[in-house]
Amino acid sequence: MPLTGFIASAFAAGSLGAWATSLSVRTWYPLLHKPAWNPPVWLFGPAWTLLYLLMGVAAWLAWRSRHPAARPIVAAYFAQLVANALWSVLFFGLRQPAWALADIAVLWALLVWIQAGLAGIDRLAAWLWLPYLLWVSFAGALNAAIVRLN
């Protein structure tokens, strides 16, 4: 699969998430109690754009390596895209932050597993994956705070 396929699959998951988010981010989300450290809404689009690009390149590097451990890492890459898109559907589409928190826990576990696998396959891929893992860690803490505050 070419690099564009990995990146396009990430952006496809992001597009589903953006579709689920579009109405609620303007109507419902502003009404929620959020912690003081909640980032401004305008930051999420650029952050996710960069993260989708980085994660696609990281997965492609693993796939291209033909390392014996690459196949399960690439499969997990596609599985985590489903969990990633599902989070937006649960949080914004269905307006269920607690359900989204359960999803992000599964997503985070997948990302940690992928991070560890990438570290053994391709160091650059592991470094490119790290911002995504850190962002989802932050997003999980934010999601938990929103559940607690609401």
Short description:
The protein is built from 6 helices and no strands.
Key words describing this protein structure:
Ferritin, 81% helix, elongated
Overview of the molecule:
The protein is mainly α and about 150 residues long. The chain has one domain: TspO/MBR protein (Ferritin). The chain is about 80% helix and about 0% strand. It has helices at about 5-20, 25, 45-65, 70-95, 95-120, 125-150.
CATH architectural grouping? Up-down Bundle
User: How much of the polypeptide forms β-strand, as a percent range?
Assistant: under 5%
Rg from alpha-carbon coordinates: 15 Å
Q: Low-confidence parts, pLDDT < 50 over ≥5 residues?
A: none
Number of domains: 1
Superfamily at the CATH H level? TspO/MBR protein
Number of helices: 6
The biggest beta sheet reads: none
Remind me, CATH topology? Answer: Ferritin
Total strand segments: 0
Structural class: mainly alpha
Mass-distribution shape:
elongated
What gap, in angstroms, lies between the N and C termini? 44 Å
The average pLDDT score comes to 94
Helicity range: over 70%
Report the order of strands and helices.
Answer: HHHHHH
CATH class: Mainly Alpha
